[in-house]
Write a structure and sequence with these properties.
Number of domains: 1
Pfam families: PadR
Structural class: alpha+beta
Domain Transcription regulator PadR N-terminal: 9-82
CATH topology: Arc Repressor Mutant, subunit A
CATH class: Mainly Alpha
Oligomer: single chain
Protein name: PadR family transcriptional regulator
Radius of gyration: 16 Å
Shape: elongated
InterPro entries: Metal_resp_DNA-bind_regulator, Tscrpt_reg_PadR_N, WH-like_DNA-bd_sf, WH_DNA-bd_sf
Number of strands: 3
Helix content: 40-55%
Strand content: 15-25%
Amino acid sequence: MAQGPALLILTALADAPRHGYGILQEVTALSEGRVRLRTGTLYGALDRLQGQGLIQVEREEVVDGRARRFYSLSPAGRAALTDEVAHLRTVVSEAHRRLGAGSEVRFA
């Protein structure tokens, strides 16, 4: 499954289609400012995710003479993200167990 920026990009697309700049903003918000993707990194990741069948182009618009693509999760992308969420919950639960009962873990 996708790790790092790809996981954040898939998560950013989980609730609504977004264009490149919208994805960049959402990734920054999701990571609480810890991850700020560069444009080249974003579009390279989008190409890979599209090639893997995890995202798709939802629509294209022209705004101020420039093409703007909106991306969304494909059904395979939604399934892959769902699987990764389950895996991450298991890892977090195990980390919490190993840290001991006194460690507080909150899920938003």
